[in-house]
Structures are given as C-alpha cells and as structure tokens.
Amino acid sequence: MTATTRTPARAARPRRRRAVAALAALLVAGAGLTSSVAPTGAAPPVPQPVVPSANGRGDVILNLFQWTWDAVARECSSTIGPAGFGYVQVSPPQEHVTGSQWWTSYQPVSYRVESKLGTRDEFRAMVATCRAAGVGVIADAVLNHTTGADRGSGTGVAGSSFGVDSFPGIYGAADFNDCRSNIANYGDRYQVQNCRLVSLQDLRTGTSYVRDRLAGYLNDLLSLGVAGFRIDAAKHIPAADLAAIKSRLTNPDVFWVHEVIGASGEPVQPSEYLGSGDSHEFFYGRRLKAAFDGNLANLRTIADGLLPSSSAGTFVDNHDTERNGETLSYKRGAEYRLANVFLLAHPYGAPSVYSGYTWDDKDAGAPGASATSVPDASCADSRWVCTQRWTEVQGMVGFHNTVGSAPLVQWTDDGSQLVGFGRGDRGYVALNDHDQPVTRTFQTSMPAGSYCDVVASATCASTVTVSSSGTFTATVPAHGAVAIHVGRPGGQPTASTTVYYATTPGWSAYRIHHRVGSGAWTAVPGVEMAPACTGWVSREIATGGAAVTAAFTNGTGTWDSNGGRDYTLIGAAVRVAGGVVTPGSPCGTTPTPTPTPTPTPTSSSAAVSFGVQATTAWGQNVFVVGDAAVLGGWDPARAVPLSPAAYPVWRASVTLPAGSTVQYKYVRKDASGAVTWEGGTNRTVTVPSSGTLTLNDTWR
Asked: Which residue range or ranges hold the CBM20 domain (predicted)?
C-alpha cells in the first residue's frame, strides 16, 4: 500500500439551517472559497460541496482552541466531518510573541502565517483537508492590537522584530492611537475603543493605511481558503472601522462574527456591530450557567431580550469565559455535557461547541507547549477535553442538523430541574439536572414510531417509542438527557467495527489509516488509536456494514500494511496481531460465565443499585454489563450507563427479577468508543425478593 490520501468524487446535496443562508452558499473555486452575495448578519451557510455524513451537514461550529494545523486536519477527516459539523474555528494563525502561555497567540508581531501552531503550508493543507471532509475553516482574527507595550522589544516566533510603536515594514508610532494608557473605565466609549487593553498596543483602525494592512492579512487568509472569521476584541474597534475593513476584502460578504462582550449599562453594545456580521451573545452563556446554578426551568426564557436569533453566535463557553468563571466549563462534568445538549437542541442562534484542554493555571498553554511550538493535540491524552468526540455532542449535532429551523414546541418542565421541548415535528429532547433519574411521559408532535436516543448511544442501542398520540415514556438519567429526531428512526443502528491492534511493535503512538468500503482514505498518517486494555489499542469506525481496509503506523514513518496488501477488517470487533486478523475483542473478551439454571419466571422484581468507585479521564464513562438482558447480555454496546453525580462513585439502579442470580462486570468507554473491561472474574449478585440492594464495588 502506498501511504497516500485517496479522495473520491463527492456529490453535492445542500442542506440549509435557515432559508436566508441559502443565498450564501460557499462554492469551491481553486485553492480558495468564493461566495455569492449574502445578507448582512446571516448565519454561516452550509459549506459546499456538501459531504455526506450520517448526521447530515449543518452550520455548527467546532472551536478547537490551540490545536495545531496538522492535528485539526486529521480531526476534520476522522471526526469533525463524519460527525456533521459545518465549520471548525482555529486559533489565530499570524506570527505572535514567544511564550508558552495561550494568550501569546493573541499578540501579533507580523501578519505572516507562521505561528507556534504551524506553518503557512501546514495551514493551507489543513484548510484543503477540512474542506474535503465537508468542513469550512473559520480563523480567529486579531485586528485591534499588536503586542503588549509591557514586553518592550523582541522577536516573534518566526523571527520578526518588534518594539513599542515599532513593527518594521508594518507599523510605526503614527499607526497607534494617541491614548497610551490602559482602559480604566468601561463606561467611557473613548477609552474602550482608543486606549490599551491590558497594555496591548491599540491600532489606529480609523486610518486607510491600517485598514489596508488588516484587510491585506484577511485577504491572504481568504486566498488560503478560509470560510470566515471570528473578530477578536471587536468591542475595542469602532463598528464603522470594522465595516470599512470588511469592505476591502476580496469577498466582502464572507461570514464573520464579532467578539463583543456585552454588559448592561456600557456604551458599546453587540447590536451596533450587526451591520457587518453576527455578534457573539455572551448573555446566552451567562443565562445558561445561571440556570444550571439554580433552576433549569428558567431556560424557557433564555433568549428573551437578546440579539436577533439570525445574528447571534451562541456557546456554552469559550477560552476566556471558562477561565474567568463567567460560564460553565468542562470542570462541571455531567452538567457541562448537558449544557451542550441544550445548546444544540434549542433554536436560538448559531451554536459553537468549544473544545480546549484541562488547566489549573489560567495562563497555561496547551499540554506540552513551549515558547515557540505546541505538540499536536491527542484525544488519547486526557489533558485534551475533545468535546467533539463525546457521544452526546455528536448525537446532538445530528439532532441540530435534522430539526433545522423547526420552531420550539411542546415546552414542559417540573418547575425545577427537568425540562423538555420539541422542534416542530422533527425532534424532541428532555433534560434532567436532578440528582436522580426521572421517569415521565412527554408529549411530542412527532410521527408515531421507534427512534434512536442519540444522546445515549451512537449505535442506536437505546430507543424510544412514540405512540400514535405523539407521547413517549422514558427514564431520563440524572444529569442527563434523552433526545430523538426523525433522522434516526429505531431499528436502523449505525453499524461499526471496533479495530484492536496489538502493541507488540512497541511504538510510542498508534494510528490506523483506513477507508470504509470504496470511500475516501483518512489523511495520512491516519487517526489515533486509544488504549483499550493491556497490550492493545483500539478505534471504533462507523461502517454502515461495509468492510474496512486499513494499515497501521506510528505516525512517523513506520508502517504495518500487511506486506503491502493492507488489512481487510469486517465485523463488530476484530483484532490484528503479528499480521493475523482474528474476530472478537481481546479485552476481557466477551465473558463466558459458567451456565446457571434459568430462574423460574416470576412477576415480582426488585432493584439493584450498581455502584463502583472508579476514576476516569475526561471523555470517559463507566457502564455495567452482564448476563441479564437488561444489562446488555454481555454486549458492551448495550451496557447500562452509570451516573457520575457522586464521582468517583458511578451509580445506576436496575430492576431485575426478584431472587435471580446475575453475573456482571464494569466497563469503561472513552470518547473514541474504545471499551476497557475491568479485571478479575465475573461479579455475581443475588437480587433480593423486594426493595433495593445497594452495591458498593471498586474498579479492579
């Protein structure tokens, strides 16, 4: 096998979130993307060509904070495109000051596309790779300022020199505003838009020279194929200046969204920027946090009095708000996942899903960052949050794409922590922030039938049945959700193959370079495989029942391509070791318990509260699986999820036949779908004749 990327022809099948977005369809044109005239303030259109995804294709933006260009490219092919995201937002690509802290990316030294996240060629390749996966790239653009005056002079990561009021060949003293002090009063418009933001040298954006310089930088990015821009610190630039800069672009109607941090009573408000693009609605994220801090039922009015929905960019958090506590963050665990479910279910605004890394120091850069470089992100490394790989998020991207612009209907709540609502006759979601599961009947406008719960499983392991009157009854997990939509009817699971590869080569990393059926190959060197169990790594691949053709690599040039013939992999689970392909999982392979007498059928039942103390990394969850049908029949894809509400104890209550003897074990699943079985022999429990038996196990 030649280790190259194969790209088949793709048929365009446009989808639209709003009718107005249809006027702004992006068309592939050579190395870049061009656009027809779009209405000001329109939501991002669906990228063209539309690349098929099991989740459809829509306008959801994934914000990959401080990911390198090479890592973004691989993630576009392996995850972002297949999951149905429309866009990926990347960190500022221009040359900046040196330093390991994340905020160095926001201190420009020059407009060369050379940064600690990658080179110009790597950026161009990333844009092309993402576009081939159906994903447009949105660049975070820093236009308000250059470096901090408190840094004095120095050189940037690409070697360009700088000083106070001095950026040779780019800016001199006359190109900065006269106010040389820091902003002290946000109630004073002049200070906000002319003085320095925490020492950052404020550009005189009212002059033609500065406007031309900034437009030249953005035009360069457009020539590399970017599909839009996030305008950093837009609040500190007069709206008229930004409109003038945008009018100088080769595509003056390109999508962009302003970062305008709205605050009550301040003179500069997000609404004044809608003449040239969307604005992020920070009050949305604040209200979302307030509801999870207090009463979830308050989400019913979350959009009241905010920016028009067609002009609002929404999010649960971003790199600033997760650090200043203004919004929820990954540190809130299950509630953070639940907030992202709501973000993608609710019709207000154009959603952006944030994916960063764990931190204790608010200034800390990405894992392993140095003064001039950042290692590629790895979702096998628990320090990267990898929100985009969560089952809940991917399922809700599909929900969002399917319901489109359908109106919010059938709102219900219990006045406290349980809410439910529909999206026309296209979908329904129920969210529960109680500490216990809640069983309830919900009224929908959906057609009768069986539907996959897209939050519970990527493979339709859990279904909900809607009656002829539009109702369904479901148990909503504690701090969890149930979501169904017409795009995922029950009885049509998404087939997948979990590929296990033996780690006997002793590589420092393992990747699988593959294609499904006659489809496109993943970008070289392929996608990461995650630790599965001792001696094995794994990767779950959505197949739709087709065969997988694959080769394995360490990512730096060493390949196992089955002697140049590649491997053909078929089935739910398959393992590869020493050039030999064998069906099944090597990880505590499906247990084969000693046969036990079939219990006498009885109408009585009792509950077992399964609880296990188990530590996990972000993106991992714990399940219980056993020989009873309700425990999945030893199939980890149908295992019962445990709630992390009392972390590190994971718990769920299961109703079982009274007096029966049940064998079970705990498994851990990560965001990539890899399954890790606990060690030891099968556990055994005898169900009581009545009441609830509480188990307090420890992961083995």
From this structure: 600-700
